[in-house]
Amino acid sequence: MSFASQGRLSAIRAAAGGKIDRRFLMAARCGIYMVLGFTMSCARILENGAPLGMAMVACSGPGISGVFALAGAALGYLVSGGVEWGIRYIASAVLIYTISFVFHELSIYKQKFFMPAAAGAVMALTGFLGSFYIPEREIPLFAELFLETALAFGGTFFFKEALSQPGSTENAELLHSISCVIMVSSALMAFSRIEFFGVVSLGRFIALLFVMCSALKGGMFTGAAVGTVLGLAMDICHMGTPFYTMSYALCGLLSGAFGKHGRLIFLLSFILSGALSVVCAWNTNVYISALFEVFCASVVFMLLPSSFLNHIGLAFQSMERGKGETGLRRFVAGRVKNLSEAYGDLFEILRKNIEEPYNDENIARVFDRAADEVCVGCKNKNLCWNADYVDTLSAMNDATKAMIENGSLRATDLPGFFREKCIGLPAFVAAVNGELRGLSYRRQLRVRLSESRSVAWGQYSDMAQVLGNVAEELGSINGSDPLAERRLLRYMRALEIDGEAAVYRDSGGRMHAIIESGSLAPILKDKDYLEKLSSVVGVRLCRPYADKEGESRMTLLEAEPLAVSVGIAALKKKGEKVSGDKGSYFKTDAGVLCVLLSDGMGCGDEAAKDSTQVVSILEKFLRSGVDPAVAMKILNSVMLLRGPDTWGFATVDLMCVDLFSGETCFYKYGAAPSYVKNGKNIRRIKGETLAAGLTDGEGIAPDIVRMRLKPGCTAVIASDGVIADSDDGWLKDILAEDYDDMKSLARKVIKAAENCYGTEDDMTVLTVRVEERQ
After folding, report:
1. What is residue 285's three-state secondary structure?
2. For residue range 298-336, what is the model confidence (pLDDT) as tens digits?
3. Residue pair 689/703 in contact by the 8 Å Cβ criterion
4. Residue 14 confidence class, pLDDT cut points 50, 70, 90
5. What is the distance between the alpha carbons of residues 614 and 649, in angstroms, rounded to a whole number?
6. DSSP three-state, residue 769
7. How far is it, in rounded angstroms, from Cα 262 to Cα 228?
8. Comparing C-alpha atoms, which of 316, 306, 310, 213 is closest to residue 266?
């Protein structure tokens, strides 16, 4: 609902194609302000006060609109109360218009509360001066002055908001709607003095229609709020008990609960609520007229067309969040999916080109090229290659098999008749061997290029899979959790924290909550703040980044039902300063524990450099949400593409445990066996693929073993220096014992391995135990 006259006139102009005369628009605007000034001046508070006409003049400004508002207010005061009574309010209106005219060019005039404060001060001053000749009344003078001053201040502020265009923010829109309701309430105070047959008040009749519309279209809480405001306005102007406040609020609340059950049931509940409110106030006063007003309003409301109610009810709809964020997320998901498909198609085109059979040089070309080099200057060339061409060709064919088997041509491989006839045999044999070596080199180069291209182009397939997973997560049904978000914001407001909150679920369904504010001290000072926040959103929460975040931001994640303890022990090779093994573990935002172990080629600094790079690259991929198998394939491709001077390889052992379900995957590139203890059973997990950097061909995936770990399960991941051969009985004997401390278990395994094999290689052990979260 908007009473912004400038906006309405603009709409009229747009509807008429912009052809309306500006003088007509100005006349219409002036007429609106004059009518509003007249109406507000006729509104009464406590039967004899009328500050709202002056408030209307104060909010109209110093221009022509203010002049007409002043004229309308002065006319209303004279018509509704006479000269003797109205002269005080007319003087107030003239004085506030003068203040507006004098100060309108100063910066202080543009302050939001300047004119409301000026209107309140003028009303208080004129009220105090007029109190000297006002006779004694039931209400104390200071109470009446205070009420008139407050209404002058509030009326000026809210009337100006109602007559202005609504802002672009949600709070500005809400303030504009509230201001419109207050302005309507003030106008109905004037109409409440008009009664039909001394029973039905026109103002209360219209007020009931507004309450009905707000309850039907806005719901029970909107109906109760609008009913409270309109009822309070009716009570103020009649100086009675707050019956109408109670009655209208009760009717709006109870009938709003039946707004979705049809208009007839809604009106029946409204009438019964009105009757209930009359019965509740029976001992104080009998408000029989209120029943007639409810009945008449119900009859008229029943006859109103639905299109009209929909138009009016638009103003009473609550401001709800739309699905713009979800739409944007799905739009981006579609873009990423298309990009993924493009990479996939590109990979297929390149793969087909690579796989097309290459028509390599015929071995006969070796003899042809040698003849072009040696025989071209020989005096017997015509005899050998023209007259006796068939014999020469037969000799070459007979020598081909032996040449291929030996890798070179010897003179004895040629038939005797050819050796006797050829006068340049040594040169011819040397030329054939040179061409044969060239052919071999070219073939090797083509194979190397084909392998490198296959590996490089295979990354298009990996990239397509990565982008496909991202698109799938963006387009998943999970997203924002508006209910939990509203609960969290309500909790923040209760602690007087002014900030923002975002609650959403990732593709796996895990809840993420982010709170941002200037200060989170009211939350953090409570040692049980995590338990309280968990009860607010209905999910157990944990705070994973407490050490990295300041007091202005807090990230909360849904706590996993499973917990893990991890132990690491390592031992360098005898005589080396650093270990070539690198072990690490971390937990992703999706609640997956990743345990990594890499063993670089050889020992010392170079091996340590390779293993450290492997662990670092994989950790970044895994933390970004890339599928582990895809991440390891990309790593293998990178290591295959390294130059001959930096060539190397590294074993990779990766264990991923979903702490929500216990689902566990082992990924291995040339890694030593791992062991899992489940109750009394001990399982050996072994892979077959080579280390990363040795696996030839594109798309070679690591060995993958899947299982489910239950609370109480223990896993051991070790480098090949710990498990050097198939004799692992000693390790199984250790696992057969019960260990609660994973660090002690890791140290014991290292010590036992040292006793078995010595320190001829780097040794690293990671132990993992799964437990239920306490």
Report:
1. coil
2. 999 998 888 777 777 766 666 555 444 555 556 566 666
3. yes
4. very low
5. 10
6. strand
7. 24
8. 213
